[in-house]
Amino acid sequence: MELGVAMSGNLFSQFLQVMPGADRPFIRTSSGRTVTYGDVVAVSGRMANVFVQLGVVPGDRVAVQVEKSPEALLIYLACLRAGAIYLPLNSAYTLSELEYFVGDAEPRLFISAPEKAELLRPMTERLGAAAFETLGTDGETGSLMEKAAKAPSDFIDVAVKQTDLAAILYTSGTTGRSKGAMLSHGNLGSNAVALRDTWRFTSKDVLLHALPIFHTHGLFVASNVVLSSGASMIFLPKLDPDEMFRLMPDATTMMGVPTFYVRLLQDKRLNRDTTRHMRLFISGSAPLLADTHREWAERTGHAILERYGMTETNMNTSNPYDGARIPGSVGLPLPGVSVRITDPETGVALPAGDIGMIEVKGPNVFSGYWRMPEKTKAEFRADGFFITGDLGQIDPRGYVSIVGRGKDLIISGGYNVYPKEVETEIDAIPGVIESAVIGLAHRDFGEGVTAVVVLKKGAALTEADIMALLREKLANYKLPKRILFVEDLPRNTMSKVQKNILRETYQHLYA
Ligand code: MCA
Ligand code: AMP
Hints:
Number of helices: 17
Helix content: 25-40%
Bound molecules: methylmalonyl-coenzyme A, adenosine monophosphate
Low-confidence stretches: 1-5
Mean pLDDT: 95
Number of strands: 25
Shape: globular
Strand order of the largest sheet: 2-1-10-9-11-12-13-14-15
Radius of gyration: 23 Å
Largest sheet: 9 strands, mixed
Strand content: 25-35%
């Protein structure tokens, strides 16, 4: 191995070390297009050369808001190779949401879906992005692929340290604005190897991949594990049971949020025959109900393997491959990861079995929030443990269970929704006095975003009026499923809104 590769902590070098033959498939799309591992090296090399032509230098951010495609993932790999920082953005984000991210991250290059170029380009130029390119989903459409076709495929990967940044992913803050989680080559590389080995991924695996690739689950947990084992993936644009059953015969494994499993269970095609050949079903990003776990096992004979992670920490724990996969538990700490339960106030470790704050430490834990040193400092203990905000306990066998959240967060269909962000937009509507946004049990999404609103006397605002106004400002998954109007909000003696009373009052809203 040349010195350059050995010295560099570049995550792409880790993938190269296990890369199968150039003709082996990396991604097959549901429309039948195949991208081989030879394409991975050649096309990511072309893209990296285009980035250099556009003035991208190591440490620059490359922001990407495109629809899911193999080439969208190759942009991520090209960033690794060029030493740039990949910044994937949810394709549902509106112009006003994007304005914040571009202003905060100051990307050198913005890559947009072709159909959004006209809307987004002026904003990115106004905010200082030096270059703007487009990418479609067929592997050819868009200015980026046009430039890549003319660029050389040979590219000398930039030698980086394990601690150099590979990506920034925004994870909304409980107090309003999103925070950019900085993830290093080492964070991602160590976690991919831990997961590959824990889940026994090999080059023979084919992962059925219907998740978005702008979040940790579909991007790092799925793709980095596949790339670290020389396996392949079948890409679906999104969850679609018809497509899942059509393509599952060619797969060996699947990853999904709980809504995936809830929906597939509603489909009579789910049974032992259609899943017999599958090796592993993995769930995460939100609580998998023990009932869902049990129903799936009864119907298919497979015990779903649940794991727990965060954008800031990658994966922390996993149920075992061999050994009990306990419904309602998120399993055991991954190799190299330390997990402890502490008193939320003091950080003092609690006796085994007590419920408290889950804290984690390990090579998986991020470097901090982009340009927010204070917020970063506030989320680490003096001894380096990261405070997850999740409440949990560890049983005598070492299994971790999440029993609640110490942060004001709703998880809907696996997406995080921070009430503050939605409340701010509702409260800005003329005629609204105030609002409280809560998550209520929802069979399909896990939790349903729900707004309780106090209107000014005589304000003639309806639920539809408010929804229409919010739709312009917020990504679709953040929109309340219901808006309820009340005379006033319950408050405690400190005049703090008591959301627990609201959750109690409306707990059966979606039953
Ligand atoms: C779509 N809608 C949603 C959601 N998705 N509403 C609430 N929550 C959602 N998650 C909107 C749609 O815009 C539509 O509104 C209406 O709800 C019905 O859409 P539907 O067709 O039912 O939804 P879908 O398009 O099928 O999407 C549901 C989904 C999707 C498949 C569960 O949300 C999904 O793929 N979620 C995965 C998110 C994810 O990757 N999470 C990992 C984050 P309208 O008709 O008005 O448009 S990473 C993480 O959490 C950590 C690190 C970890 O541990 O993994
Ligand atoms: P994100 O902020 O998108 O990285 O989501 C991370 C959060 O998702 C964690 O802090 C947990 O609250 C939640 N989460 C992830 N996996 C699980 C799981 N298996 N069970 C319950 N909650 C989970």
